[in-house]
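User: For my dataset I need records formatted as: sequence, then structure tokens, nothing else. Please produce one.
Assistant:
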Amino acid sequence: MVGRRPDILHFHSFAKEHTMSNKENLGSPYASVFTAGNDQYHAVASINEFGPIKHASSLAKVLVEQKAATDEWEALQMAHCSVKQAKALANGDQYHKLAHARLQKEAKQQHEQASPAVFPNARCA
């Protein structure tokens, strides 16, 4: 691999070791982008048209019907969280992006502490 620094190669192998197994993996992050965007569109459109209470109520009923929730109480909790998430996304909040960046930073720091630099005294001309 021409042009890639050895320390970057070590970090990538370290990161791969600390990821979820294939059994737990959610698949490609690109695969769910359109589904998530479409669902967010419908959440915002419904909340704008009918209000958050009516939308959350309808969503809770759908969650029970689709067996995504085990009972009405769980469905209410899930609907509440989903409506809050839709509002946060509509406001431009990207908490998952921030959490991902934090984990990447922590993994890189752990890797740097665990293994010394490949060429610690090397200078670039």
